[in-house]
Amino acid sequence: MSRVTLSRYLIEQTRSHNTPADLRFLIEVVARACKAISHQVSKGALGGVLGSMETENVQGEVQKKLDVLSNEILLEANEWGGHLAGMASEEMDKAYQIPGRYPKGAYLLVFDPLDGSSNIDVNVSVGTIFSVLRCPNRNGQSGDLGEEAFLQPGTEQVAAGYAIYGPQTMLILTLGNGVKGFTLDRELGSFVLTHDNMRVPETTQEFAINMSNQRHWEPPVKRYVEELLAGKTGPLGKDYNMRWVAAMVADVHRILTRGGLFMYPRDSREPEKPGKLRLMYEANPMSFIIEQAGGASTNGLQRILDIQPTSLHQRVAVFLGSKQEVERVTAYHQE
Ligand code: F6P
Fold first, then answer.
1. CA 9, CA 25: separation in Å to the nearest integer?
2. Are residue 83 and residue 119 in the same domain, yes or no?
3. Residue 118 in contact with residue 101, Cβ under 8 Å?
4. Which atom of ligand 1 is nearest to the CA of 118?
5. Which residues of the chain fall below pLDDT 50?
6. Which value, in Å, is the radius of gyration of the alpha carbons in the chain?
7. Which domain-ending residue is among 168, 195, 222?
8. Which backbone phi and psi does 257 adopt, to 5 degrees?
9. Contact 267 CB / ligand 1 (< 6 Å)
10. How far apart are CA 165 and CA 192, in angstroms?
11. pTM for this prediction
12. What domain range is 98 assigned to?
């Protein structure tokens, strides 16, 4: 049987699910940009791309050279095609305006150009996360696109995905009807469908959390992790294993492949911030993917996709993965 490339998959989606041509084009452009990022990431020290800039992003994090480069690759790839009304990125304070010389389109693209970038210098997996929203009707309003156009709950996403730059480069995509995994064939330069129907098993014996923050967690998280660590002799009655890559893309990819629970809870280090991860370009796209694969995702109290964002770079606590464990830790919060 012939191989199904990303292009063919998208064309078939247009036939079977009426995926609009401009959304198809958008996904293809993002995928092309991810190939370019993958190429840069793989050069490492040979490409002079390792190390940090002297700048900080809007989150106050030191920018890596590859953060900045990946952001530029995504902006340049997407600004001219006429499919977007605007973009927003982890690396930019404000919404990115499509230059006046190009036509504007119906969609908004939100992304984390290089997630887990502290892993770059040690040659461990990193990735790109993206979310696609429809641009609300601006009622004939011209001028710059404001932040408010982007502030839509995750349920409004029309597509989401991530690329993982690991031993293989893969693109994981949902258009709202299941989750597909494509592997980059470097000789052909195409993403090829290799994981047709990705599903997160309902139960698991694996969890992911940064344990070094334990003393800062809230009581329900402390209780839950204590129970996990108690293993067979504890109330959960089974032994659990722990993994933490410190790149959300890599941890979520493992969970999508073999199950597990990912947690980044809010904690008392910076009480004014509800967690570390960002809602719009980390938690929302990953939650959409995980739900589409049969898993669940909450902030401990409510479904992440139902949260009404109030700012572009808003943070959120995240518990996502195998349904049974997400429900358990969420119930502990609600008690
Ligand atoms: O974007 C933030 C991020 O790099 C995630 O990809 C990752 O899950 C998390 O931070 C790692 O956090 P920590 O450095 O606390 O382990």
1. 12
2. yes
3. no
4. 4
5. none
6. 20
7. 195
8. -85, -45
9. no
10. 15
11. 0.96
12. 6-195
